[in-house]
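Hello,

Our lab assistant flagged a job as stuck in the queue for most of the afternoon. It eventually completed. Since we weren't sure the result was trustworthy after the delay, we are filing this so someone can double-check. Below is the sequence as submitted and the structure that was eventually returned. Let us know if re-running is recommended.
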Amino acid sequence: MGLTFQIGDISVESLSFYLDNYRSIMNKTTLAVGFMLFAMFFGAGNLIFPPKLGFESGADFWVAITGFIITGVGLPLISTIVAAHYEGGYKQALARIHPWISLLLLSAIYLTIGPFFAIPRTGATAYDMAIVPFLGESSSSSLLFFTIVYFGISLWLSLNPTKLVDRIGTILTPTLLLAIVALVIRAVMLFSGYAVPQTSQFEAPLFVGFLEGYQTMDALAAVAFSVLVINAIRAKNTSTQSLVKQTTQSALVAAIALGAIYIAIGWIGYKIPLSSEQVADVAAKNQHLGVFILNSTTTEAFGELGRALLGLIVTLACLTTSIGLIVATSAYFHSVFPKISYRIYAVIFTLIGFVIANQGLNEVIGKAVPVLLILYPVAMTAVIVLLIGIFRPLSLWAQRGAILSATVISILSVSQVSWIAELPLKAYSMEWGPVVILGGIIGFVLEKALCKKAEKNDR
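-- returned structure --
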């Protein structure tokens, strides 16, 4: 069918294409692969979270943005490096722990970064960035009209994927980066003289930033899509050691780029002089504060033409992301449940994204939070046990116990079961950590007991 897989603004076909071309220019492909990893994780939707965090953190900006970078940058890149150590990526690695863990966890991740949250977020973000600033405020009719066109194009190109989409994506990533760099430079000129409020809205800014980093969904995307990157790199290498080394070096390149961008656009929110009346007006119009900050800064820096251009670039970048997610999610479920055709999956997932996007950007983001609070601890636990397994093999039941414990405690925590509030680290939304360790220990002890019982029966 000629399908391509894509996350952020780049596909695996484009990745392979760029690796070949960069290799002819550079003696080493580390920078080329690092840029590709960066492009995968840096989707246009990620732009809106750091400015909001920067504004709300006030005097605690550097602490809060550090927490954001841990989950928004560090986790997806560590997840990619871990995948390089396992043949077949997370799908096969998790299947070795238990087939149901692989199926349920990956299905939940694909649905989250696909039709239920990430796909509708691309449409809602594009609308808020490109249309709302010129209308003055959002309306259900204008959002409906925009999303009909937006998701109609997404579905059409998802059913008929072409290299045109890949080429647009690979052009848009550097164009978007250039636009952001220009905006940051201009913002420094505009806002560097403004005094920053010495107050903060956060009691624990590091952990608020940590949780805000969940919103990028990149750690989940890394678990689902890392095999595509690894396979593309593996095609250029013959040894596992070389693969792991190049993936690690490239991950560091991507981490530096991602961290720099997030800090820069977060700094804009940190320094922008917004009054409480302006913030209240944004909330009253049900606009996302991060979108408002970027649009306001762009207008002040470059005028209406600059804002229109940024809106167009973001819209096209969101569109390529939406197409890639529809293709990848539909292809995954078709591979798992092949009785339903790829085209039917694509139609279903596009319609789900369309319906959810019409609830508005704030609603999409708000409904994603509880799901992410469940999925992230489970995904992080899976990455951690596989990371430990690289250096020291873990008991199979210990791995199962840890992942199962993370699942149960995350569901109970989001369900606000009363006794969960008494657990250690609950104030920092890290209560799952000690429980995961306990679950791993119980699994290990249980496996030892079962082995001893089996040995006794054999005698």
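-- support follow-up --
The delay was a queue issue, not a problem with the job. The result is valid. The chain has 19 helices and two strands. The chain has a mean pLDDT of 83.
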